[in-house]
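Rotation project, supervised by the postdoc (A.L.). Task for the rotation student: set up a whole-complex structure prediction and record inputs and outputs verbatim in this book. Inputs entered:
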Amino acid sequence: MKFLVCISKAPDTTTKITFTDNNTKFNEDKVQWIMNPTDEWYALVRALELKETLGGTVTTVTVGKGDVEPVIRKGLAIGADDAVRIDADDTDAYQVASLIADYAKSENFDVIFTGKETINYNGFLVPGMLAELLDLPYVSLAVKLELNGNVATAIREIEGGEETLQVNTPLVISCQKGMAEARIPNMRGIMAARTKPLKVVAPGSVASLTVVKNFEPPKERGNVKLVSADNVEELVRLLHEEAKVI
Amino acid sequence: MSVLIFVETQEGKLKKSAREAASYGAKLAGKLGTDALAIALGKVEHSELATLGQQGVTKVLHEESSNFDHFDSRAYAKAVAAAADKAGATVVVLSSSFNGKALAPRLSVRLKAGLVSNATELANTDGGFTVKKAVFSGKGVANYSITTDKKIVTVNANSFPIASGGGAAAIEDFSAGLSASDFAIKITHVEKAGEGIPLPEAELVVSAGRGLKGPENWGMIEEMATILHAATACSRAVSDVDWRPHHEHVGQTGLTISPNLYIAVGISGAIQHLAGVSSSKTIVVINSDPEAPFFKAADYGIVGDAFQIVPKLNDALKKYFSSHN
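Outputs recorded:
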């Protein structure tokens, strides 16, 4: 089995978010980059687990410039066999999906894994676009995946429940909590990652379909209004009369 | 030229998020001086679809093949793209439901239409097409310009009010011309999570965290949710140790929600949790620690022991609802 895992970098979850250049750019100063959590914990680890039971290879692919390589090396340290970096700054989801599709279309991967959504632009767009570009079935928000020959059995979350489905490979699947347990790279993995192949691929020319015009800080909330623990009726009154939510 | 809205149904009924998307699409069509049409797939009564007129939809295209009774993003994208062609749509609107978010990106590729997901406000069409959405898990807001001729927007849940007042929408049977081989995904089992209100589109949410000390203490939280007709949610810490199911986890790596009311009990309010709930309209925090960071992100707060406050609050809410119904 040939597995591909799409990995992207994201600002560490505790990062304070600010903007520069008249609020047109995300301020990357002092930002600690990590592997996007759902890419790492669920997509990558499930691909590795399936490789360990079924045999095969796990390749990671990332769109980014050289500064993303520590994140790629971490994927190799956790257990990926090799990595591909498409040498371009990411501009929008369509550009990223197109670049990955260009690379993947001649590689015949059985399953292409992604995380649920990246915690920077929170679009949740790349896996669906990638599936359409490659004309593959797409299973979103999966919490389970098993493979039996070319038949994949997956469970995905739906509003108010879960559905179990069957689909033939090849396919694209986006993964969330439940799919696997996060793995911490060990010293042997970290040492091995240094010499695993990391191929840099020149990007094709792809136009973006959207552009961020500017950013704003989120709406400010007023000061908290404290209600005495002995007077919960006052909270009910405020929710009805002031907040008008009940 | 028109605006086409993809409307989702569940067990023969239009979903609330479908009516939000329809309201959004109709308002946008008004601004653009064109009509709002809708596309519905699978089994649903025409009388139900006609009620989309109340949201301002003039005509509903209905592809009723039972092949569409289960969701398959590839087949759905083909069908909605065919409907967009037929309607001459320049804008396609979907809800940011789980299926909407799986379908919209495929449609974006198929129609070569720029897509912005989770829109929180009506698109600004003055000299362009700009859509506002939350980014960095609620720690920022971005205004996206869509630069293609055709545009796609998915509408964030609880962000856009449902319009009412129009007449009945016309219904037109529509065939997308798909065959059985276009459907690759076979659903073998559907498991309902229970009778409760699904969290992603709930208007009221009661949530609890580690402060509750153990899963056996959730009775009072579920009771409050029942009184309020609210959904239940939880912090990551609590779902990680399986006190609560994973699908209840809200936060940066869980679900991002924007209900009208979010009540957080015994959750300290780490930045990762706030990221998932900060766009809630009203936030109430109940915590024994007056220094809990969540109080800084809340509208109302009560400092004290949840085990004493929540039962009292439940009684007060019961009293309120018995005199207001």
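Student's summary: The first helix of chain B runs from residue 16 to 32.
Supervisor addendum: The CA atoms of residues 104 and 316 of chain B lie 44 Å apart.
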